[in-house]
From TrEMBL:
UniProt protein name: Quinol:cytochrome C oxidoreductase
Membrane spanning residue stretches: 156-173, 207-230
Short name of one Pfam family: Cytochrom_C
Residues making up the signal peptide according to the UniProt record: 1-25
């Protein structure tokens, strides 16, 4: 009996060790929830759980490396921390993976602790189920909130109909009075004094007629002049583009700097339309829209995913094989801001030299609508626009007004040296401005600055 109990005890210990070893091997000794956070912070640039991105899908990676390479979790720890060193040591499976994925070198993560890696592996082995959205509760709340609004709308409609009915009754009564008046002798007397022709009317009221014609002529001339002055002014113009691109999502929600995509605005005359390769810098790994916290009304995940697929079609990218096919399609963007050929405008001059001066001037004139990026002074708050539109007039008068009110930054080292002697002269020349030097004061109103 004692011997049986002794063997039974050993068996239980062995089973326990086996289970704990198995759980450890399959990544279950980590914290999947913490692993999810670490995965998103460190791995999502190159990996997804269920599909190949730059690297292979990582769901069930612990089991996969055991089956394919006969290696355990300790091997994964070494691979994640420093795969380059593991390959250099001659590890056969490590070099096979390197060759299999086009010799794309994985980043090293020496900063991750053993526990961090265990948590990540636990997440890839058994990812937590996504929390169900409480749509039913939200719908019930919305319905309850909408009920009083519907009742108020019904009351307004009833009151409006009663008012219209009352107005119709009043009109009918007045018409009846007019009919009675037409049958009276009083109307016959009025008919005798009535003007019977246009000639008689003109002779009787010719001074008034001439005055009215003169006023109409002036108004017509002003209307034609005003129409001519606004030719080519398209404030509010927002055309539909071949690929839907929301600046609110990219510049607003994701805080992407304007000059990351429009790099030539800082160094060149023209702010170019970014090439599709610029889009692929991010969308090579972002193949679907997962930002549930923001979706434009009327659009869903399928819509945004479809627009990303248009980027792939334009660049000839095969997301399944993670390689370019060489078959590209041009994207015909619709230009929004377009200066006439006789106007010279240099973006770099405003974005670099005039950046702080323009921001300061704009914020001074618009204390309740301040900007933090110089681009917004002309293009509006682009980070709030789903569809980009022309935010200002872009007329000559609009530009001149800006030159008259924008002060030159005399604390700038270059300006301080360049306008050293001019500064005192301009203070005397423009005493009404309190010695402030505006763009107009240094030649900003000269025709040849913008037209030549």
């Amino acid at each position: 009996m004692i011997s049986w109990r002794k063997h039974y005890k050993k068996t239980l210990i062995a089973i326990g060790l086996l289970l704990s070893t198995s759980a450890s091997f399959y990544g279950q000794d980590g914290d999947p929830k913490n692993g999810e956070k670490l995965f998103k912070a460190n791995c999502t640039a190159c990996h997804a759980l269920d599909k190949q991105v730059i690297g292979p899908p990582l769901k069930g990676v612990v089991e996969r490396v055991k089956t394919e390479g006969g290696v355990d979790k300790d091997w994964l720890h070494k691979w994640i921390k420093d795969n380059k060193a593991l390959r250099a040591s001659g590890d056969k499976y490590a070099n096979e993976i390197f060759e299999k994925y086009n010799k794309t070198e994985m980043l090293q993560f020496p900063n991750l602790t053993e526990k961090d890696i265990d948590d990540i592996l636990a997440f890839t082995t058994n990812p937590p189920a996504p929390e169900e959205k409480k749509t039913e509760a939200k719908t019930a709340t919305d319905a309850t909130a909408a009920a009083p609004a519907d009742k108020t709308t019904t009351n307004i409609v009833i009151i409006s109909l009663l008012a219209i009915a009352g107005l119709l009754v009043w009109i009918l009564l007045k018409l009846r009075q007019l009919v009675k008046l037409g049958q009276s002798e009083e109307l016959a007397g009025l008919n005798e004094t009535r003007v019977r022709s246009f000639k008689e009317m003109y002779e009787k009221f010719h001074y008034v007629g001439k005055a009215v014609i003169a006023i109409l002529a002036i108004l017509a001339a002003y209307g034609v002049w005003n129409w001519l002055m606004w030719i080519g002014v398209y404030k509010g113009y927002k055309p539909e583009q071949p690929i839907y691109f929301s600046h609110k999502i990219h510049a607003g929600e994701q805080k992407i700097d304007c000059q990351l995509c429009h790099s030539s605005a800082k160094y060149g005359k023209v702010s170019e339309i970014p090439s599709m390769n610029v889009c692929m810098n991010c969308h090579r790994t972002i193949s679907e829209y997962n930002a549930d916290h923001y979706m434009e009304p009327g659009k869903d995940k399928a819509f945004y995913d479809g627009e990303i697929q248009k980027i792939y079609a334009a660049t000839g990218w095969d997301p399944a094989k993670q390689q370019y096919t060489g078959k590209t399609q041009p994207v015909e963007w619709t230009r929004i801001h377009n200066m006439p050929d006789f106007v010279y405008f240099n973006h770099s001059q405003h974005v670099v030299a005039g950046e702080q001066a323009i921001i300061n001037s704009f914020n001074k004139k618009n204390p309740n609508n301040k900007i933090d990026v110089v681009c917004k002074a002309c293009h509006g708050k682009i980070d709030t626009m789903n569809v980009v539109q022309m935010a200002n007039d872009f007329t000559m008068g609009w530009c001149i007004e800006c030159h008259r009110t924008t002060e030159v930054d005399m604390n700038n080292g270059y300006n301080k040296e360049y306008f050293k002697n001019l500064h005192d002269k301009l203070k005397k020349q423009y005493p009404q401005d309190g010695g402030k030097i505006t763009v107009a004061a240094i030649g900003g109103l000269e025709c040849g600055k913008c037209h030549y």
